[in-house]
Amino acid sequence: MESRVPQTLDEEVAALSRGADRDSLFMQAELILPGQTKTATVRVRNLSAGGMLAEAPLRIAQGTTVEVDLRNIGAVPGHIVWVGDGKFGIAFEYQVNPQAVRRQIARTPEVPAHISVLNRGPFHRRR
Fold first, then answer.
1. Domain containing residue 37
2. 44: domain CATH number?
3. Residue 23: what are its φ and ψ, rounded to 5°?
4. Is residue 114 in a domain?
5. What is the DSSP annotation of 59-100?
6. Are 72 and 94 in contact (CB under 8 A)?
């Protein structure tokens, strides 16, 4: 297989992203397209510090500037570096921490009032 030198900035970013450590995962993110008020939900298939592989039934052009709302990080600006059969690659404008995106946020569960009474203290059953 012949190796070639990237000719454009997009090709260079794509080449660097292919060599980066990636996390394979299955989660969703919101894609914010320029000039649109509504976000598009995409599936995140691979995520690295420099970009991601997204999957969605969208018509989007290579070079389009986007923002991706990633869990635990927020909106990350980037641009589309390649497009193919329902999938596309996004190069981020700055590095992100993929592990932070994967991390689950622990929430305190809401306990109904009739059950929270049980947390009040020793109970003795009458015999």
1. 9-104
2. 2.40.10.220
3. -100, 120
4. no
5. ---TT-EEEEEETTTEEEEEEEEEEETTEEEEEESS---HHH
6. no
Amino acid 1: pLDDT: 47
Cβ(53)–Cβ(89) below 8 Å: yes
> Does residue 27 sit within a domain?
yes
Chain center to CA of 100? 10
Q: Is 111 exposed, middle or buried (0-12, 13-18, 19+ CB in 10 A)?
A: exposed
Give per-residue pLDDT as tens, 18-61. 555 555 567 899 999 988 888 999 999 999 999 999 999 998 99
Asked if 5 contacts 44 with a C-beta cutoff of 8 angstroms, the reply is no
Q: Is residue 100 part of a domain?
A: yes
Q: How many domains does the chain have?
A: 1
Query: Percentages helix, strand, coil for the chain, rounded to the nearest 5?
Result: 20, 40, 45
**52-94: pLDDT as tens digits:** 999 999 989 999 999 999 988 999 999 999 999 889 999 999 9
Q: Does any domain span residue 118?
A: no
